[in-house]
Fold this protein.
Amino acid sequence: MIQEKILTILSNYWFLVRYGIVGVCGGLIQMGTLYLWVGVFHLQSQYLFGAIVGFCLALLVTFTFQKYWTFRDFVHTKLKGQLFFYTFIALINLGLTVLFLHLSKMILESLGFDFFHIAYLIVQAVIIAFLAVASFISNYFLTFRTREHS
């Protein structure tokens, strides 16, 4: 009985670690794309488009890894529905990301900060962290709800 409880706790711990690793990779893809867009290609006037491109790239990578590695869901008959819900949740997050990024730019610039110096990356990291929690809950209970997560 005690061994089963320990295995359950460890199983849940590694499940959360896997989810976190994939989430961090998705965040790095988003931030890396935004950095390339703004810092390398100097497309500051189109920074929101760079955020959207990074988001789409991260979506493709994270869905694949969350389905097969984190949730260990190898059922292909539910793939379309899962991709729909995952994308729907991600699009809500995209809208919130763009909104929060734009509002942060307006607020920081009104306070005299240079948003494109480094603040845009810090703001993006905070937004990603905040939305990661909401995404986890949504995907756990909606997208991949029928699988046991071990």
User: Anything to note?
Assistant: DSSP finds four helices and no strands in the chain.
